[in-house]
Amino acid sequence: MKTYLNAVLISLLLAISSSCGSSKEFSSLDYYDNIDIVHIPKGVGWMLGSVASIDDKDAGKILKGFKSITIVDCQGMKGRKEIMKCVKDAIDSDRSELILETHDGPETTLIYGHIDDRSMKLKNLLIVSEEASELSVIRAKGTFDIRSVLNEQTMRLP
Length: 158
Hints:
- The protein is of the alpha+beta class.
- Helices cover about 35% and strands about 35% of the residues.
- The protein has a 6-stranded antiparallel sheet with strand order 1-2-6-5-4-3.
- A hairpin with a 3-residue loop joins strand 5 and strand 6.
- It starts with a helix and ends with a helix.
């Protein structure tokens, strides 16, 4: 019951606080009818971390540094160059580097971020997923503890 309640609370928070507009970084894309942008603004992150940590301490640690997230979804080819320009600008401003690149048939996924080797923190995660008919970008601003993320994933291994 507690997990269900947490899921409902998080869903309500996201519904209330998200907007269909874009962050400043992606505001040049607002005029495309084939591009959907959802922005969960700064200030919601502390609520998500607090609610998640009630049920799962590791999830709370992972979300603790969350500040904001922007999700961009483009159907078709129109506007892709503009999206990739916004992505390049974000990578440059964050001094991010390519962390992971995967290819699965026609789908390519790129994950960027800035890693602080001393503190094992990952700052400003950027995920780009591209297929022939769709381009998706997830821009998560904040600082995330890599050890908490790795612990969460390794605990799920058989």
